[in-house]
Design brief:
alpha/beta; 5-stranded mixed sheet; 12% strand
Length: 682
């Protein structure tokens, strides 16, 4: 049960402007209680005035009949209780035995007694059920009238409770989650906890003239802990917290969303100071139609308009803070994001390496770990992982340990779990033919050797030709640092590394294969961004035509529907992209031809071991080992996958591949680490 805040004593201070509290809920029982009392009185009053009948024995009854003292008698069924009236007006009851028969009737007739026969009447229980049914049918219309008339200020407030808010209230029975259980994100926690502290000790801020923010919007990729932070707020705050999802406002009835918004803020004002948390606010806060759009009485727009009015309208109310979470801030209405409604926007990005260590420590509580498990090493190998991904990683590692009949998790379990999440499940039945296995080894050796021989490439950590999921081989690179900006040299080297697999096939086999389809798609996308968005082309010049797309959900969004450049510019862009890719391929081919002996040695080693560490790659390439990274250096996984050949179906796309691509250079990537993405291989 949530306690209501006691109103302050009356004084000279002006009122807060909050609506008066509604009448107590027990008033709803007055009508049914009154009906029950009236029914009982109706049954009791006739017995109050009726005289108590006198009970006669059968012998005395016969004597009274003989003395002509019986005026009338109503004979019940044989063996039942008969009743009648004496000549003096008193009532009586008598039990006439079944053996009396016709002689008694003759005696009654000769004495002039009015004789009647009573049929079997229903019992008290049957009468009670009948009356209850009648009362139910009478009370139902009254009940619905009462429900429909409740809250006359809102026409949808009482329709079967559809207009009532679906928010959960946390006050005395708060969740057990606290800020101490939210690992990392110290900046985000400080901003949110400051709002909680403002509500708890508002007098401290009032002395400095500070006002509490009306709203705090948490934005970030999925799985980064936005809802977890809200649960921590509910666990830490000593004020009521209303928790509701954006999708719970809109249903099939028109106007229900606006009514629920009104009801939510009305209930929150009664308990002010309070916090309202709206999860997935983009469900109701999407951008309204702009200029030229058709005017529509849209239900979602009505709900948004009511939310805007409640947060900062004509009659604002102090003491309420709205927390909201969304991973689609680009679709929110500008009126919702302005100061006065959401004064603060807290970005919760993907965790860095130190935060991943702390998050893994939280998710490994209660799990037995072997001494060889170093959470810092695990964290360095999981860039782009959100908090939810890390929780899944710890759980998958525990599952791998159970499969091996152990209850203690080893470092190998974390490695297998990471490969399972990134690449997919490794199937023993997905065996390659000898020729295919050799081609995959050549392809992956090309990726690894080009990366090892390039100065600006990320260090190689592992190369494997074991099929997993829809990948036939993987080359993992672990960067020295978590990058936020990307130089042109780094991007050109990345193109060469991506095309290293195809280049190795051209050098060793003499022809390409479908295994390079995914590499070509990723390299083309990266080269297109370099030319069209980053101005890394002397022909096109310093211009940028970004495609846009979602900020946190990935995918890049659809292509430009209305291109801001001419067809000639598009042709020039295509030519520059092709030039970049051809130069990268030539660079990779030249490197591999120059080091053909090292390439053949790495291919043979892969065919023998199937999995080769980065140190062996650098040893064969004759370069210093850069795979051993100090524990303080964060890392980032960049597998290059060899895709299986497509099925021989016309116009069919090859299987979908899930994994990581090289650090994508895009405007939004300047402030975040790339995460898992899906691409098509061919």
């Amino acid at each position: 049960m949530s306690k209501q805040v006691t109103p302050p004593p009356p004084g000279d201070k002006p009122g807060s402007g909050n609506p008066p509290p509604p009448p107590p809920a027990w008033r709803h029982w007055l009508l049914p209680i009154g009906l029950v009392i009236a029914f009982l009185v109706w049954l009791w009053l006739p017995t109050l005035h009726a005289g108590r009948p006198e009970t006669l024995t059968y012998s005395r009854f016969l004597s009274e009949v003989s003395a002509h003292q019986v005026k009338s008698v109503e004979i019940a069924q044989p063996g039942g209780t008969s009743s009648g009236e004496l000549s003096n007006g008193h009532n009586f009851t008598v039990v006439i035995p079944a053996q009396a028969g016709q002689p008694m009737l003759d005696q009654l007739q000769s004495a002039g007694v009015e004789t009647t026969s009573a049929t079997e009447s229903p019992g008290f229980g049957s009468q009670l059920v009948s009356w209850l049914l009648i009362l139910v049918f009478l009370a139902l219309p009254v009940f619905f009238w009462f429900r429909l008339s409740r809250g006359a200020g809102g026409q949808f407030q009482g329709v079967m409770g559809a207009g009532r808010s679906r928010a959960k209230v946390f006050d005395e029975e708060r969740p057990s989650t606290t800020f101490a259980e939210v690992a990392g994100y110290e900046g985000a926690k400080s901003e949110i906890s400051e709002v909680v502290d403002f509500l708890r000790t508002s007098e401290r801020y009032a002395k400095a003239g500070a006002k509490v923010p009306r709203g705090v919007l948490m934005v970030g990729p999925p799985g980064t802990g936005k809802t977890l932070l809200a649960r921590a707020v509910a666990g830490e705050a000593h004020v009521p917290v209303f928790v509701v999802t954006g999708s719970s406002f809109v249903e099939m009835f028109v106007g229900v969303g606006a009514a629920r918004v009104r009801d939510l803020f009305t209930e929150a004002r009664k308990r002010a100071p309070a916090i309202i948390f709206v999860d997935e606010i983009d469900a109701i806060g999407q951008r309204r139609g702009g200029q030229g759009a058709a005017v529509a009485n849209d239900e979602r727009e009505q709900t948004l308009n009511q939310l805007l009015s409640e947060m900062d309208g004509f009659d604002p109310t102090a003491g309420l803070v709205v927390l909201a979470a969304s991973n689609r801030p680009e679709v929110l209405d500008p009126a919702l994001l302005r100061p006065g409604r959401f004064d603060r926007q807290v970005t919760i990005p993907l965790p860095n390496v130190n935060e991943r260590v702390a998050i893994l420590g939280v998710h490994c509580r209660g799990k037995s770990l072997q001494p060889d498990v170093d959470l810092e090493v695990v964290a360095r190998g999981t860039p782009g992982f959100s908090g939810a991904d890390l929780a899944n990683l710890a759980n998958e590692a525990a599952i791998f340990a159970v499969r091996d009949g152990r209850d203690v998790i080893s470092a190998a379990d974390f490695g297998a779990a990471r490969d399972r999440i990134i690449l997919g499940r490794r199937e023993g039945t997905n065996a390659l033919l000898p020729e295919e296995k050799h081609n995959v080894a050549v392809h992956e050796s090309g990726h690894a050797l080009v990366a090892a021989l390039s100065e600006h490439a990320d260090p190689v950590a592992k190369v494997t030709i074991l099929p997993a999921g829809q990948t036939l081989g993987v080359t993992e690179q672990l960067p020295l640092v978590e990058r936020h900006m990307y130089s042109e040299d780094y991007l050109l080297t990345s193109l060469a590394v991506r095309l290293g697999g195809r280049a190795a096939e051209l050098v060793v086999v003499g022809q390409g294969s479908t295994g390079a389809g995914n590499d070509l798609a990723g390299a083309t996308e990266l080269a297109t961004k370099m030319v069209r968005e980053f101005g890394m082309s002397a022909t096109i010049g310093p211009v940028g035509y970004p495609e846009g797309g979602s900020v946190f959900l990935g995918g890049g969004g659809p292509g430009l529907s209305s291109r801001p450049f001419a067809e000639a510019t598009q042709a020039a862009i295509d030519e520059e992209v092709s030039t970049l890719l051809r130069r990268a391929e030539i660079r990779a081919v030249d490197l591999l031809r120059e080091h053909r002996e090292e390439l053949d040695g790495l291919v043979d080693l892969l065919l023998e071991r199937e999995t080769v560490d980065g140190s062996d790659v650098y040893r064969l390439a004759g370069r210093p080992d850069r795979s051993a990274i100090p524990s303080a250096s964060p890392m980032e996984v960049t597998p290059h996958r060899t895709a299986p050949a497509p099925r021989p179906a016309p116009d069919s796309e090859a299987g979908r591949l899930t994994g990581y691509e090289p650090a994508a250079a895009s405007p939004e990537d300047n402030h975040r680490t790339p995460g898992p993405r899906k691409h098509a291989g061919s």
